[in-house]
Amino acid sequence: MRFFLAAALAAAVAAVAAGCAGGTTTASGSASARPVAAIASMRAGTPSAVPPVLVASLTPAKAGRAGDRLALLSSRTGDLVRWLAPQPQGAADQVLSVRDGWVYFARDPFSSPGPGAIWRVRVTGGRAQLIQAGATGYAVSPDGRAVASVISADQGDVLELAVRNLVTGRRHTIVMATRPDPGSNNWPPNILSLTWAPDDVHLAVQFQLTAAINSVLVFDAFTAATAGDGRTAPAPCPVNSACGEFDPAYLASGALTYIIQRVSRSSGAATASLVAWQAGHLTTLLSFPAGVPESYDMTAQGQAIWASEPTRPKGPWTIWRWSGGAPVELPLSASAPYWVGAIAW
Question: Which of 9, 61, 185, 325 has the fewest CB atoms within 10 Å, i.e. is most exposed?
Answer without folding.
Answer: 185
